[in-house]
């Protein structure tokens, strides 16, 4: 399995062997990988070599380390393109997965100072807040906290978000609002315990926080949303042109 005459570093040869096991289907999602000590003995290398291979696979989301239990094969990451304004429901449908939601919070209230700034609201302006756990094929994928200008989307009160998954569809069909562009930022953070429990994310795994402000064609801000995606299940990608 290891070719010491090969110029490829030993840890990359170990990593490639493990990748082939996963890509061939011999190692399935949830399978536990042999301990580092056993793999090192099988390959005839030291444990640091195996550890480096596993660390790279963990960084790529191919495996998940669970303290006190071991290392397990994880699901392939969802490739989420940047540069297109789409809903979670559309994204999952494109990937052949069934989107669903659990509504955690739904209320109409007075906007905070930050929300008034983000949505260009007057003093005492109202917002419609929708906080949901988003799932794909029953697996928690993201937490979404969407705050919208209530004056523009009052008819959202007629929508059952348990049944209707896409907020953007509701905005178009019920409120006559078509969102055409957005400004967003993405950063990583270690989730607080309650968030990690809702997402069922591995211990210590980061989440990808996306903050987005969405506009209509005439530049009216409608939505300010903060989404927290499981870092072990998502990979954002974009195409850059020179």
TrEMBL record:
Keywords: DNA-binding, Transcription, Transcription regulation. Residues 8-76 form the HTH gntR-type domain. Signal peptide: none annotated. PROSITE patterns: HTH_GNTR (PS50949). SMART domains: HTH_GNTR, UTRA. This is GntR family transcriptional regulator. InterPro entries: Bact_HTH_transcr_reg, Chorismate_lyase_/UTRA_dom_sf, Tscrpt_reg_HTH_GntR, UTRA, WH-like_DNA-bd_sf, WH_DNA-bd_sf. It comes from Alicyclobacillus cycloheptanicus.
